Amino acid sequence: MPELPEVEVVRAGLERHVVGATISAVEVLHPRPVRRHAPGPADFASALTGRTVTAARRRGKYLWLPLAAPGSEADDALLAHLGMSGQMLVQPVGVPDERHLRVRFTLSAAEPVVSDAEPVEAPRQARRTSELRFVDQRMFGGLALSAGGAELPPEIAHIAPDPLDELFDEAAFVTRVRRSSSGIKRILLTQTVISGVGNIYADEALWRSRLHGERPGNRLTRAHVLELLANVREVMNDALAQGGTSFDALYVNVNGQSGYFDRSLAAYGREDEPCRRCGTLIRRVAFMNRSSYFCPVCQPAPRSARR
C-alpha cells in the first residue's frame, strides 16, 4: 500500500497539474470506487461537475482536492484513498484508456493569459483540456465527495497529523508512546497516534534507530522516542527525494513514473541479505498479517519477544 512519501508525491503532482482546473465532466466507469457516495455514481458525477479545484492537500495516506462552485469559495472536497493499487494519473485527452480505469474527470483549465505581442505556441483547446484518471486494479481504494471538507474532511478528522505536518505535536507523541505497553512498531502504525507511517517506513526507521519493533513504548526513554521520530522523518524525506518506493508498476506518480527508494532500503524486503551495518542476515517475522524485517544483532528483541 502506498505510504506517506508515495501519497505526497501524488499530491505534489496534482498541485502542479490540476489546481485551478474546472471539472467539466465526470464519468464513473465502475461503481465500486465511489461506493461511499450513498446517492450513487450519477449523483457523484453531477455533484462534482462544474466545480473548480482550488488546492491539493493530504493527511497521512488520504488526499483531498478542495472544490469551489462558480463565484464562491471552496467548501466541499473530493476525498481520495489509493488503497493497495490506486493511481491518479493526469493524461491528455485522447490517450488510450488504462486497463483498470475506474473514474474519469475531464478538466478545463483557466484560459491562459496571452498578450498581443506573445505568439500562441499551441491551440488553446489542446492546452486547456486534460483528464484526471482514477485507475485501480484491485479496487480497495476509493473516491468520495466530502461535504464541507475543503479545510479538513470530517471523515478523516480522527486521523493524527503526520510527522512532516507542521501541526504534528512532538510532545504529545512522546507522551502517548511512553504511556503505551504496545510494541513500538504497532504504535507507529496506529493512525490516530501518528499518520502516514506504514510497514515499509516503520521497518526502515526502526532499523536506523536500532530498535526492535516489539519493544514496548513504555520501555523507551524520551530520547529514544525523539531519535525514532527523527529517523521516521529522515527516511520519509529520503524516499520523497527519490519519488517514493515502487516494487511493481502499481505505484506511480501522476505522470506514470515509478519511484526508486526501494533500491535504498536497509531492512524491508531484505530477508537473508546482509545487514548494511553489521553484516548479519536480515530476518523476517510475521506481524499483523504482514511481515517485519530487522537485524537480530543491531535490533535485539526484548525478552518477551524472545520467549
In words, what does this structure look like?
With 307 residues, the protein is α+β, with helices and mostly antiparallel strands. It is built from 8 helices and 11 strands. It has 2 domains: 4-156, Alpha-Beta Barrel (N-terminal domain of MutM-like DNA repair proteins); 170-306, Orthogonal Bundle (Helicase, Ruva Protein, domain 3). It has helices spanning 4-17, 41-48, 124-128, 170-178, 184-188, 199-209, 222-241, 303-306, and strands at residues 22-28, 52-53, 57-59, 62-68, 74-81, 86-92, 101-108, 129-136, 142-146, 283-287, 290-294. Strands 2, 3, 4, 5 and 9 form a 5-stranded antiparallel sheet that branches. It has a 4-stranded antiparallel sheet with strand order 1-7-8-6. It has a two-stranded antiparallel ribbon with strand order 10-11. The protein is elongated and about 60 Å long. Mean pLDDT is 87; it is low at 112-127, 245-254 and 257-261.
**Residues in β-strands, percent:** 15-25%
Mean pLDDT comes to 87
User: Strand-and-helix sequence, N→C?
Assistant: HEHEEEEEEHEEHHHHEEH
| Shape designation | elongated
**First and last CA, distance:** 31 Å
Low-confidence stretches: 112-127, 245-254, 257-261
Tell me the number of helical segments per DSSP (H or I, 4 or more residues long).
8
CATH homologous superfamily placement of the largest domain? MutM-like, N-terminal
Radius of gyration of CA atoms, rounded to a whole number: 22 Å
CATH architecture designation of the largest domain: Alpha-Beta Barrel
CATH top level label of the largest domain: Alpha Beta
How many strands, which pairing sense, and closed or not: the largest β-sheet? 5 strands, antiparallel
What percentage of residues falls in helices of 4 or more residues?
10-25%
The CATH topology of the largest domain is what?
Answer: N-terminal domain of MutM-like DNA repair proteins
